[in-house]
Write a structure and sequence with these properties.
Layout lengths: L1 H7 L8 H9 L1 H14 L6 E4 L9 E5 L8 E2 L8 H5 L9 E5 L4 H4 L1 E7 L2 E11 L4 E6 L6 H9 L7
Antiparallel strand pairs: 1-4, 2-3, 2-4, 5-6, 6-7
Amino acid sequence: MTGIKAIRRHVYMWPPMEQVDIIGSKRCLLANLDHVSRVLKTVRPVSKALEPGCLIPSGVVLKRTHSENSQHIILPNEEGRDWDSLGMQMEVPGCIWIAQSFIPKLDAIGEWRVFLIGGRIVYCVHTKYNSERRIWKYEPVTEYYSLDELTYVCSLNSSLYF
């Protein structure tokens, strides 16, 4: 951060690093998503920040903040669900681990991230798990499920809470 602050004296940077750090932490994002879910009365996976050394719930997905390209995700049946292993992946200052409700079939179906501007889809990314390599692979897509289809899939799953 010291180096970036020095560079900022000479070069305009957007977005400001303070905003990048807040976005990278995912804490604000989770709070915003929870708020939207409450207001719209929709279901979303429960996410809970974990304090180092606390009991790690079983049956949840572990995700690290300040992560990109779908790294630092540990599914319920994978190894590394202990604080010794998680602690070795805390190289980013301010990062934390989050426990999130596991949605069955997430590893098989994957996740879509849809970017909207002015109510129109401008970009969509599909992320899917490769169980042989234990990595998440993402690719831009031009076809995706409608919100009605996604709502139907979510309504079939009553285990969104832990």
